[in-house]
Amino acid sequence: MFSFADYVRVEEDSPIKHEFFKGQVWAMAGGSPRHAAIAARIIATLTLQLRDRPCEVFTSDLRVRVSATGLGTYPDASVVCGSLLIDVEDPKRHTITNPKVLVEVTSPSTEEYDRGDKREQYQTIPSLEELVLVSQDTQSICIWRRESDGWSEQIVTGSAVAELASINCRL
Predict the structure, then answer these.
(1) CATH, residue 123
(2) Alpha helix positions (H), the chain
(3) Residue 8 lies inside a defined structural domain of this protein
(4) What is the pLDDT of residues 61-107, one digit of tens each?
(5) What is the rounded CA–CA span in Å between residue 71 and residue 132?
(6) Angle at 105 between CA 102 and CA 108, to 5 degrees
(7) What is the chain's Cα-based Rg?
(8) How many domains does the structure of the chain reveal?
Protein backbone atom coordinates (compact mmCIF):
# COMPACT_ATOMS: atom_id res chain seq x y z
CA MET A 1 0.00 0.00 0.00
CA PHE A 2 1.25 3.43 -0.99
CA SER A 3 0.54 6.73 0.68
CA PHE A 4 -0.21 9.63 -1.65
CA ALA A 5 3.23 11.10 -0.83
CA ASP A 6 4.85 7.75 -1.81
CA TYR A 7 2.91 7.79 -5.06
CA VAL A 8 4.03 11.34 -5.85
CA ARG A 9 7.68 10.36 -5.28
CA VAL A 10 7.38 7.32 -7.56
CA GLU A 11 5.55 9.35 -10.19
CA GLU A 12 8.29 11.97 -10.27
CA ASP A 13 10.84 9.49 -11.66
CA SER A 14 8.49 7.40 -13.78
CA PRO A 15 8.51 7.58 -17.58
CA ILE A 16 4.78 6.72 -17.60
CA LYS A 17 1.81 8.16 -15.71
CA HIS A 18 -0.01 6.27 -12.99
CA GLU A 19 -3.37 6.63 -11.31
CA PHE A 20 -3.61 6.43 -7.51
CA PHE A 21 -6.57 5.18 -5.50
CA LYS A 22 -6.87 3.69 -2.00
CA GLY A 23 -3.16 3.00 -1.69
CA GLN A 24 -2.92 1.28 -5.06
CA VAL A 25 -1.09 2.54 -8.14
CA TRP A 26 -2.02 1.61 -11.73
CA ALA A 27 -0.19 2.44 -14.95
CA MET A 28 -2.31 4.51 -17.30
CA ALA A 29 -2.41 3.30 -20.88
CA GLY A 30 -1.12 5.60 -23.56
CA GLY A 31 -3.71 7.00 -25.92
CA SER A 32 -4.13 6.28 -29.61
CA PRO A 33 -3.22 8.93 -32.19
CA ARG A 34 -6.96 9.66 -32.56
CA HIS A 35 -7.34 10.09 -28.79
CA ALA A 36 -4.34 12.44 -28.67
CA ALA A 37 -5.61 14.49 -31.62
CA ILE A 38 -9.07 14.92 -30.08
CA ALA A 39 -7.58 15.99 -26.74
CA ALA A 40 -5.23 18.45 -28.50
CA ARG A 41 -8.11 20.01 -30.46
CA ILE A 42 -10.19 20.43 -27.32
CA ILE A 43 -7.30 22.06 -25.45
CA ALA A 44 -6.60 24.41 -28.39
CA THR A 45 -10.27 25.33 -28.75
CA LEU A 46 -10.72 26.06 -25.04
CA THR A 47 -7.43 27.96 -24.82
CA LEU A 48 -8.49 30.29 -27.66
CA GLN A 49 -11.90 30.94 -26.13
CA LEU A 50 -10.50 31.60 -22.64
CA ARG A 51 -7.56 33.78 -23.71
CA ASP A 52 -8.93 37.02 -22.18
CA ARG A 53 -10.41 35.45 -19.07
CA PRO A 54 -8.95 34.41 -15.70
CA CYS A 55 -9.15 30.71 -16.58
CA GLU A 56 -6.31 28.39 -17.59
CA VAL A 57 -6.50 25.21 -19.66
CA PHE A 58 -4.17 22.35 -18.73
CA THR A 59 -3.09 19.21 -20.58
CA SER A 60 -3.01 15.69 -19.19
CA ASP A 61 0.33 16.53 -17.59
CA LEU A 62 -1.48 18.18 -14.67
CA ARG A 63 -2.49 15.76 -11.93
CA VAL A 64 -5.90 16.25 -10.30
CA ARG A 65 -6.75 14.88 -6.86
CA VAL A 66 -10.26 14.10 -5.72
CA SER A 67 -10.01 15.01 -2.03
CA ALA A 68 -13.15 13.13 -0.99
CA THR A 69 -11.94 9.78 -2.33
CA GLY A 70 -8.18 10.22 -2.64
CA LEU A 71 -8.10 9.49 -6.38
CA GLY A 72 -5.07 10.98 -8.10
CA THR A 73 -5.31 11.00 -11.90
CA TYR A 74 -4.54 12.86 -15.11
CA PRO A 75 -7.64 14.03 -17.02
CA ASP A 76 -7.13 14.67 -20.74
CA ALA A 77 -7.82 18.37 -20.09
CA SER A 78 -8.76 20.50 -17.14
CA VAL A 79 -9.76 24.12 -16.66
CA VAL A 80 -9.12 26.12 -13.51
CA CYS A 81 -10.48 29.63 -13.05
CA GLY A 82 -8.67 31.78 -10.52
CA SER A 83 -5.87 30.47 -8.32
CA LEU A 84 -4.71 26.87 -8.32
CA LEU A 85 -5.41 24.98 -5.11
CA ILE A 86 -2.49 22.62 -4.59
CA ASP A 87 -3.04 19.32 -2.79
CA VAL A 88 -1.49 19.62 0.66
CA GLU A 89 -0.16 16.05 0.47
CA ASP A 90 1.92 16.74 -2.63
CA PRO A 91 5.33 18.08 -1.56
CA LYS A 92 6.24 18.82 -5.20
CA ARG A 93 3.10 20.96 -5.62
CA HIS A 94 2.14 19.33 -8.94
CA THR A 95 -1.38 18.23 -7.95
CA ILE A 96 -4.44 20.47 -7.98
CA THR A 97 -7.80 20.00 -6.27
CA ASN A 98 -9.96 22.73 -7.81
CA PRO A 99 -10.79 22.13 -11.47
CA LYS A 100 -13.88 23.89 -12.78
CA VAL A 101 -14.11 21.71 -15.91
CA LEU A 102 -12.62 18.29 -16.59
CA VAL A 103 -12.44 16.58 -19.99
CA GLU A 104 -11.93 12.88 -20.63
CA VAL A 105 -11.65 11.43 -24.12
CA THR A 106 -13.08 7.95 -23.77
CA SER A 107 -11.67 4.91 -25.51
CA PRO A 108 -12.97 1.34 -25.64
CA SER A 109 -10.65 0.32 -22.78
CA THR A 110 -11.56 3.28 -20.50
CA GLU A 111 -15.16 4.11 -21.40
CA GLU A 112 -16.90 2.10 -18.68
CA TYR A 113 -14.59 3.44 -15.95
CA ASP A 114 -14.71 7.05 -17.26
CA ARG A 115 -18.53 7.04 -17.41
CA GLY A 116 -18.99 5.15 -14.15
CA ASP A 117 -16.72 5.14 -11.10
CA LYS A 118 -14.36 7.87 -12.27
CA ARG A 119 -17.28 10.18 -13.15
CA GLU A 120 -18.83 9.61 -9.74
CA GLN A 121 -15.55 10.43 -8.02
CA TYR A 122 -15.01 13.56 -10.12
CA GLN A 123 -18.51 14.73 -9.21
CA THR A 124 -17.48 14.93 -5.54
CA ILE A 125 -14.99 17.74 -6.33
CA PRO A 126 -16.63 20.88 -4.87
CA SER A 127 -15.24 23.23 -7.54
CA LEU A 128 -16.20 21.02 -10.50
CA GLU A 129 -19.08 22.48 -12.50
CA GLU A 130 -18.86 20.44 -15.70
CA LEU A 131 -17.44 17.07 -16.71
CA VAL A 132 -17.06 16.54 -20.44
CA LEU A 133 -16.81 13.00 -21.80
CA VAL A 134 -15.85 12.92 -25.47
CA SER A 135 -16.19 9.67 -27.38
CA GLN A 136 -13.16 8.69 -29.42
CA ASP A 137 -15.19 6.39 -31.67
CA THR A 138 -18.43 8.30 -32.31
CA GLN A 139 -19.38 11.95 -32.74
CA SER A 140 -20.72 12.24 -29.22
CA ILE A 141 -20.03 14.54 -26.29
CA CYS A 142 -21.62 13.96 -22.92
CA ILE A 143 -21.67 16.93 -20.56
CA TRP A 144 -22.38 16.34 -16.90
CA ARG A 145 -23.34 19.69 -15.35
CA ARG A 146 -23.69 20.53 -11.66
CA GLU A 147 -27.17 21.88 -10.94
CA SER A 148 -28.63 23.19 -7.68
CA ASP A 149 -30.23 19.79 -7.02
CA GLY A 150 -27.52 17.45 -8.35
CA TRP A 151 -26.04 16.62 -11.74
CA SER A 152 -27.71 16.74 -15.14
CA GLU A 153 -26.52 14.98 -18.28
CA GLN A 154 -26.63 16.42 -21.78
CA ILE A 155 -25.57 14.45 -24.85
CA VAL A 156 -24.55 16.28 -28.02
CA THR A 157 -24.10 14.27 -31.21
CA GLY A 158 -23.04 14.78 -34.79
CA SER A 159 -22.06 18.32 -35.74
CA ALA A 160 -24.10 19.95 -32.96
CA VAL A 161 -22.32 22.42 -30.69
CA ALA A 162 -21.63 21.49 -27.07
CA GLU A 163 -22.04 24.48 -24.75
CA LEU A 164 -19.90 24.62 -21.61
CA ALA A 165 -21.99 27.03 -19.56
CA SER A 166 -19.64 27.26 -16.60
CA ILE A 167 -16.86 28.82 -18.70
CA ASN A 168 -18.99 30.17 -21.58
CA CYS A 169 -17.19 28.08 -24.21
CA ARG A 170 -18.29 25.93 -27.13
CA LEU A 171 -16.97 22.68 -28.54
Answers:
(1) 3.90.1570.10
(2) 4-13, 33-49, 111-115, 117-122
(3) no
(4) 999 999 999 999 999 999 999 999 999 999 889 999 999 999 999 98
(5) 18
(6) 140
(7) 15
(8) 1
Residue 52, φ and ψ in degrees, nearest 5: -110, 20
Q: Tell me which H or E stretch contains 54.
A: none
Which amino acid is it at 63? R
pLDDT, one tens digit per residue, over 101-126 is: 999 999 888 888 889 899 999 999 99
Specify if 55 maps to a domain.
Answer: yes
Kindly state whether residue 143 falls inside one of the protein's structural domains.
yes
- Residue whose C-alpha is closest to residue 20's, from 59, 56, 66, 76: 66
Structural domain of 76 = 31-170
Neighbours of 87 (CB within 10 A): 21
Let me know: does 151 contact 132? Beta carbons within 8 Å. no
